[in-house]
Amino acid sequence: MDKIAQAKKMAAERAVDFVEDGMTIGLGTGSTSYFAIQRLGERVAEGLRIRAIGTSKRTEELAQAVHIPLITFSDVKELDLAIDGADEVAHDYSLTKGGGGALLREKLVASAARRFLVIVDHTKRVHHLGKFLLPVEVVPFAWELTHYRIEQLGCRATRRRQDNGEPFITDNHNYILDCDFGEIVDPPLLHNALKALPGVVETGLFIDMAYAVIESDGEHVTVEYPKS
Ligand SMILES: O=C(CO)[C@H](O)[C@H](O)COP(=O)(O)O
Fold first, then answer.
1. By Cβ atoms counted within 10 A, which residue in 107, 128, 129, 226 is the most buried?
2. Are 117 and 211 in contact (CB under 8 A)?
Protein backbone atom coordinates (compact mmCIF):
# COMPACT_ATOMS: atom_id res chain seq x y z
CA MET A 1 0.00 0.00 0.00
CA ASP A 2 1.45 3.41 -0.92
CA LYS A 3 1.87 6.23 1.59
CA ILE A 4 -1.29 8.12 0.54
CA ALA A 5 -3.43 5.00 0.75
CA GLN A 6 -1.91 4.28 4.17
CA ALA A 7 -2.76 7.84 5.26
CA LYS A 8 -6.36 7.44 4.09
CA LYS A 9 -6.64 4.12 5.92
CA MET A 10 -5.23 5.55 9.16
CA ALA A 11 -7.58 8.57 9.11
CA ALA A 12 -10.56 6.36 8.27
CA GLU A 13 -9.81 3.84 11.00
CA ARG A 14 -9.38 6.61 13.59
CA ALA A 15 -12.85 7.89 12.64
CA VAL A 16 -14.34 4.45 13.21
CA ASP A 17 -13.08 4.66 16.82
CA PHE A 18 -15.87 7.24 17.33
CA VAL A 19 -18.54 4.65 16.49
CA GLU A 20 -20.39 3.11 19.42
CA ASP A 21 -22.88 0.29 19.74
CA GLY A 22 -26.39 1.23 18.65
CA MET A 23 -25.39 4.25 16.58
CA THR A 24 -26.80 5.30 13.24
CA ILE A 25 -24.01 6.18 10.82
CA GLY A 26 -23.74 8.04 7.52
CA LEU A 27 -21.28 6.34 5.20
CA GLY A 28 -19.28 8.49 2.79
CA THR A 29 -18.16 7.85 -0.75
CA GLY A 30 -14.64 7.54 -2.15
CA SER A 31 -11.33 5.86 -1.55
CA THR A 32 -10.92 7.15 2.02
CA SER A 33 -14.46 6.23 3.04
CA TYR A 34 -13.80 2.78 1.59
CA PHE A 35 -11.37 2.09 4.43
CA ALA A 36 -13.91 3.29 7.01
CA ILE A 37 -16.55 0.95 5.59
CA GLN A 38 -14.13 -1.98 5.66
CA ARG A 39 -13.19 -1.29 9.28
CA LEU A 40 -16.84 -0.88 10.27
CA GLY A 41 -17.54 -4.22 8.60
CA GLU A 42 -14.86 -5.83 10.77
CA ARG A 43 -16.42 -4.34 13.88
CA VAL A 44 -19.88 -5.48 12.83
CA ALA A 45 -18.48 -9.01 12.42
CA GLU A 46 -17.17 -8.70 15.98
CA GLY A 47 -20.66 -7.84 17.25
CA LEU A 48 -21.02 -4.06 16.89
CA ARG A 49 -24.65 -3.18 16.20
CA ILE A 50 -25.06 -0.17 13.93
CA ARG A 51 -27.41 0.94 11.20
CA ALA A 52 -26.20 3.05 8.29
CA ILE A 53 -27.21 5.19 5.36
CA GLY A 54 -24.91 5.30 2.33
CA THR A 55 -24.14 8.43 0.32
CA SER A 56 -24.05 6.61 -3.03
CA LYS A 57 -25.11 3.38 -4.67
CA ARG A 58 -21.44 2.32 -4.70
CA THR A 59 -21.21 2.85 -0.94
CA GLU A 60 -24.44 0.93 -0.37
CA GLU A 61 -22.94 -2.00 -2.28
CA LEU A 62 -19.72 -1.83 -0.25
CA ALA A 63 -21.70 -1.71 3.01
CA GLN A 64 -23.87 -4.65 2.00
CA ALA A 65 -20.77 -6.64 1.08
CA VAL A 66 -19.48 -6.31 4.68
CA HIS A 67 -22.91 -6.86 6.25
CA ILE A 68 -23.56 -3.35 7.58
CA PRO A 69 -27.36 -3.05 7.95
CA LEU A 70 -28.72 -0.23 5.80
CA ILE A 71 -31.69 1.99 6.59
CA THR A 72 -33.23 5.02 4.87
CA PHE A 73 -34.54 8.40 5.94
CA SER A 74 -37.98 6.80 6.31
CA ASP A 75 -36.49 5.07 9.38
CA VAL A 76 -34.61 8.01 10.97
CA LYS A 77 -34.42 11.76 10.57
CA GLU A 78 -31.12 12.16 12.38
CA LEU A 79 -27.84 10.25 12.40
CA ASP A 80 -25.40 9.99 15.27
CA LEU A 81 -22.34 10.28 13.08
CA ALA A 82 -21.36 10.65 9.44
CA ILE A 83 -17.90 9.76 8.15
CA ASP A 84 -16.78 11.02 4.76
CA GLY A 85 -13.75 12.15 2.80
CA ALA A 86 -13.11 15.50 1.12
CA ASP A 87 -11.28 16.81 -1.91
CA GLU A 88 -9.98 19.91 -0.13
CA VAL A 89 -10.02 21.21 3.44
CA ALA A 90 -9.34 24.96 3.81
CA HIS A 91 -7.85 26.86 6.75
CA ASP A 92 -11.38 27.81 7.88
CA TYR A 93 -12.45 24.14 7.58
CA SER A 94 -14.68 24.77 4.60
CA LEU A 95 -14.55 21.77 2.28
CA THR A 96 -14.80 20.91 -1.36
CA LYS A 97 -16.53 17.60 -1.97
CA GLY A 98 -18.00 15.82 -4.96
CA GLY A 99 -14.91 14.45 -6.66
CA GLY A 100 -16.75 11.14 -6.73
CA GLY A 101 -19.97 12.80 -7.87
CA ALA A 102 -21.89 12.04 -4.68
CA LEU A 103 -22.04 15.57 -3.27
CA LEU A 104 -25.84 15.87 -3.00
CA ARG A 105 -26.33 12.71 -0.98
CA GLU A 106 -23.16 13.46 0.96
CA LYS A 107 -24.49 16.87 1.96
CA LEU A 108 -27.91 15.52 2.89
CA VAL A 109 -26.35 12.81 5.02
CA ALA A 110 -23.79 15.14 6.66
CA SER A 111 -26.54 17.67 7.41
CA ALA A 112 -28.52 14.96 9.20
CA ALA A 113 -25.59 13.90 11.38
CA ARG A 114 -25.07 15.22 14.88
CA ARG A 115 -21.34 14.85 14.25
CA PHE A 116 -19.72 14.93 10.81
CA LEU A 117 -16.24 13.44 10.73
CA VAL A 118 -14.08 14.42 7.76
CA ILE A 119 -11.30 11.97 6.93
CA VAL A 120 -8.41 13.09 4.75
CA ASP A 121 -4.81 12.47 3.90
CA HIS A 122 -2.48 15.42 4.36
CA THR A 123 -2.45 16.34 0.64
CA LYS A 124 -6.04 17.60 0.93
CA ARG A 125 -5.14 20.57 3.14
CA VAL A 126 -5.07 23.99 1.43
CA HIS A 127 -5.22 27.59 2.58
CA HIS A 128 -8.10 28.59 0.28
CA LEU A 129 -10.27 26.16 -1.67
CA GLY A 130 -10.09 26.20 -5.44
CA LYS A 131 -7.21 24.16 -6.76
CA PHE A 132 -9.61 21.24 -6.98
CA LEU A 133 -12.38 22.17 -9.43
CA LEU A 134 -15.66 22.83 -7.65
CA PRO A 135 -18.30 20.21 -8.51
CA VAL A 136 -21.82 21.60 -8.95
CA GLU A 137 -24.76 19.25 -9.50
CA VAL A 138 -27.28 20.55 -12.06
CA VAL A 139 -30.48 19.15 -13.54
CA PRO A 140 -30.14 17.93 -17.15
CA PHE A 141 -33.02 20.12 -18.38
CA ALA A 142 -31.59 23.40 -19.69
CA TRP A 143 -28.15 22.45 -18.39
CA GLU A 144 -26.60 24.56 -21.14
CA LEU A 145 -28.37 27.63 -19.72
CA THR A 146 -27.33 26.76 -16.18
CA HIS A 147 -23.77 26.22 -17.45
CA TYR A 148 -23.83 29.66 -19.10
CA ARG A 149 -25.12 31.33 -15.96
CA ILE A 150 -22.55 29.61 -13.78
CA GLU A 151 -19.77 30.79 -16.08
CA GLN A 152 -21.21 34.32 -15.83
CA LEU A 153 -20.33 34.13 -12.12
CA GLY A 154 -16.66 34.05 -13.15
CA CYS A 155 -15.50 30.53 -13.84
CA ARG A 156 -14.80 28.04 -16.58
CA ALA A 157 -17.16 25.08 -16.16
CA THR A 158 -16.87 21.66 -17.78
CA ARG A 159 -19.56 19.01 -17.81
CA ARG A 160 -18.07 15.90 -16.23
CA ARG A 161 -17.74 12.85 -18.45
CA GLN A 162 -17.22 9.17 -17.85
CA ASP A 163 -14.14 7.39 -19.19
CA ASN A 164 -16.16 6.30 -22.25
CA GLY A 165 -16.90 9.94 -23.11
CA GLU A 166 -20.56 9.82 -22.12
CA PRO A 167 -21.80 12.46 -19.64
CA PHE A 168 -21.37 11.47 -16.01
CA ILE A 169 -24.81 10.94 -14.45
CA THR A 170 -25.18 11.17 -10.68
CA ASP A 171 -27.16 8.72 -8.56
CA ASN A 172 -29.90 11.39 -8.66
CA HIS A 173 -29.90 11.44 -12.49
CA ASN A 174 -28.24 14.83 -12.75
CA TYR A 175 -25.07 16.23 -14.34
CA ILE A 176 -21.95 17.54 -12.64
CA LEU A 177 -20.26 20.74 -13.79
CA ASP A 178 -16.64 21.02 -12.60
CA CYS A 179 -16.01 24.73 -12.12
CA ASP A 180 -12.69 26.54 -12.07
CA PHE A 181 -13.21 29.68 -10.01
CA GLY A 182 -9.54 29.97 -9.08
CA GLU A 183 -8.97 30.65 -5.40
CA ILE A 184 -12.26 30.66 -3.47
CA VAL A 185 -11.76 33.27 -0.77
CA ASP A 186 -15.41 33.54 0.30
CA PRO A 187 -17.01 30.09 0.09
CA PRO A 188 -20.44 31.13 1.53
CA LEU A 189 -20.76 33.99 -1.00
CA LEU A 190 -20.01 31.67 -3.91
CA HIS A 191 -22.22 28.89 -2.58
CA ASN A 192 -25.17 31.28 -2.20
CA ALA A 193 -24.67 32.75 -5.69
CA LEU A 194 -24.64 29.27 -7.22
CA LYS A 195 -27.63 28.06 -5.22
CA ALA A 196 -29.64 31.07 -6.35
CA LEU A 197 -29.52 29.82 -9.95
CA PRO A 198 -32.49 27.72 -11.09
CA GLY A 199 -31.15 24.37 -12.23
CA VAL A 200 -28.41 24.17 -9.62
CA VAL A 201 -29.25 21.33 -7.28
CA GLU A 202 -26.29 21.54 -4.90
CA THR A 203 -22.70 22.69 -4.71
CA GLY A 204 -19.67 20.81 -3.45
CA LEU A 205 -18.94 23.55 -0.90
CA PHE A 206 -19.46 22.21 2.63
CA ILE A 207 -19.33 25.16 5.01
CA ASP A 208 -19.41 24.99 8.83
CA MET A 209 -20.32 21.33 8.72
CA ALA A 210 -17.29 19.47 10.06
CA TYR A 211 -17.37 18.41 13.69
CA ALA A 212 -13.89 16.91 13.36
CA VAL A 213 -11.22 16.81 10.68
CA ILE A 214 -9.17 13.66 10.98
CA GLU A 215 -5.98 13.82 8.97
CA SER A 216 -3.08 11.48 8.45
CA ASP A 217 0.20 11.57 6.58
CA GLY A 218 0.58 7.81 6.75
CA GLU A 219 2.55 7.90 9.98
CA HIS A 220 0.57 10.05 12.40
CA VAL A 221 -3.08 10.95 12.82
CA THR A 222 -4.36 14.32 14.05
CA VAL A 223 -7.91 15.19 15.06
CA GLU A 224 -9.05 18.82 14.95
CA TYR A 225 -12.39 20.13 16.19
CA PRO A 226 -13.33 23.23 14.14
CA LYS A 227 -16.32 24.20 16.24
CA SER A 228 -14.59 24.12 19.64
O1 LIG B 1 -16.71 13.93 -2.13
C2 LIG B 1 -16.41 12.81 -2.40
C3 LIG B 1 -17.16 11.96 -3.35
O4 LIG B 1 -18.20 12.65 -3.95
C5 LIG B 1 -15.21 12.21 -1.75
O6 LIG B 1 -15.37 12.24 -0.38
C7 LIG B 1 -14.02 13.00 -2.16
O8 LIG B 1 -13.96 13.01 -3.57
C9 LIG B 1 -12.74 12.40 -1.59
O10 LIG B 1 -12.50 11.19 -2.21
P11 LIG B 1 -11.26 10.27 -1.84
O12 LIG B 1 -11.47 9.82 -0.44
O13 LIG B 1 -11.33 9.15 -2.85
O14 LIG B 1 -10.01 11.10 -2.01
1. 129
2. yes
d(CA 169, CA 191): 22
C-alpha distance from residue 41 to each of 12, 13, 16, 44 (Å): 13, 11, 10, 5
Q: Which of 9, 59, 87 to mutate to test the pocket of ligand 1 (most atoms within 8 A of CB)?
A: 87
Catalytic residues: 106
Binding-site residue positions for substrate:
29-32, 84-87, 97-100, 124
Does any ligand 1 atom lie closer than 6 A to the CB of residue 54?
no
- Residue 61 lies inside a defined structural domain of this protein: yes
pLDDT in tens, 194-224: 999 999 999 999 999 999 999 999 999 999 9
Residue 227 pLDDT level (bands cut at 50, 70, 90): confident
Q: Is 218 in the pocket of ligand 1 (CB under 6 A)?
A: no
Averaged pLDDT for residues 48-71: 98
103 lines ligand 1 (CB under 6 A): yes
Name residues whose C-beta falls within 8 Å of residue 123's C-beta, 6 or more positions apart in sequence.
Answer: 4
Residue pLDDT, tens place only, 1-21: 899 999 999 999 999 999 999
Examine the domain organization and report whether 191 and 165 are in the same domain: yes
**ipTM confidence:** 0.98
Tell me the CATH number at 194: 3.30.70.260
Q: How far is Cα 105 from Cα 55, in angstroms, rounded to an integer?
A: 5
Q: Which domain holds residue 182?
A: 134-201
* Ligand 1 proximity of 178 Cβ (cutoff 6 Å): no
| pTM as predicted | 0.96
